[in-house]
Amino acid sequence: MRRYGKHTDEDDIRSRPNRKGNRPRTHIRPKHEDAAEGMVLTVDRGRLTCLVEDRVITAMKARELGRKAAVVGDRVAIVGDLSGKKDTLARIVRIEERSSVLRRTADDDDPYERVVVANADQLAVVTALADPEPRPRLIDRCLVAAFDGGLEPLLVLTKSDLAPPDKLLELYGALDIPYVVTSRAELESGVAVERVREQLDGRITAFVGHSGVGKTTLVNALVPEDRRRITGHVNAVTGRGRHTTTSALALPLAGDEGWVIDTPGVRSFGLAHVDPSRVIHAFPDLEPGTEGCPRACSHDEPDCALDAWVEEGHADPARLYSLRRLLAARERTDGD
What we know:
Layout: E1 36-44, E2 47-52, E3 55-61, E4 75-80, E5 90-95, E6 101-105, E7 113-118, E8 122-128, H1 136-149, E9 152-158, H2 166-172, E10 179-181, H3 184-189, H4 191-197, E11 203-208, H5 215-222, E12 249-252, E13 258-262, H6 276-279, H7 306-311, H8 317-328
Parallel strand pairs: 3-5, 8-9, 8-11, 9-10, 11-13
Antiparallel strand pairs: 1-2, 1-4, 2-3, 4-5, 6-7, 12-13
């Protein structure tokens, strides 16, 4: 049965109101050209603490961003109340393109990758020389994640008063990774802090390491005005440390000469997201030798062209060994 006649007027047609409001739906999103630029300092249960100019504000992610999440270190566009006053809330409407990304998965079988830090220049891998014992396989995995994500690695070896660093440094010597060795006495006197600080000035550095290695103690010494966390102690029975940092946190170095990003202590560092073909980019002396490799070469098989490349004297054999050790880290568990 026809509800309306042949010559209906638009006034005759009854429109059904939108139950969620009368604003028409559209796929056109506002550009927010007047949005302020900010940096994400920390994320806590959906609320993001950001720095806008010299003000620290609290913000929420806009619905229009969908599932795209902002992480510590992200450069974001923010609208709303940017005063930084108590009980005010702004809105993140855009996440800018990232220059680097540190990712990890819970384990090597987990398809879900987690972005830990964005836009960091380098990754400081902190490990104790004793109490707890160093875990080279975990260090290898952190290095792979750094090379894959576009971060330059830095080794920070703590508690040298309990064990010498020579053996561990020899293991990574072929990688030409900068390093700093510290002791407890040097940390207390401030000598170690200055030594580490020289590697951080003018850069954004993410600190990573498993619990109990002194990572957060070092960060607190570098940024003494931050008193948010209380340093934990290593469990005398298991040798594992208690977690003293529960979420990543970006902290400015004195004099605006760089940033330190403290991350929660890790017990594992999954690499399910890493494409082995990207790790070779961190070895510029070996990368040209891969031109003769078979397709999808793992660089650790009989037909790999890197063996001939090294035999011809183009690169140090120790470098090839280091590359293959790092690639093999994806196939091993974190435990020693």
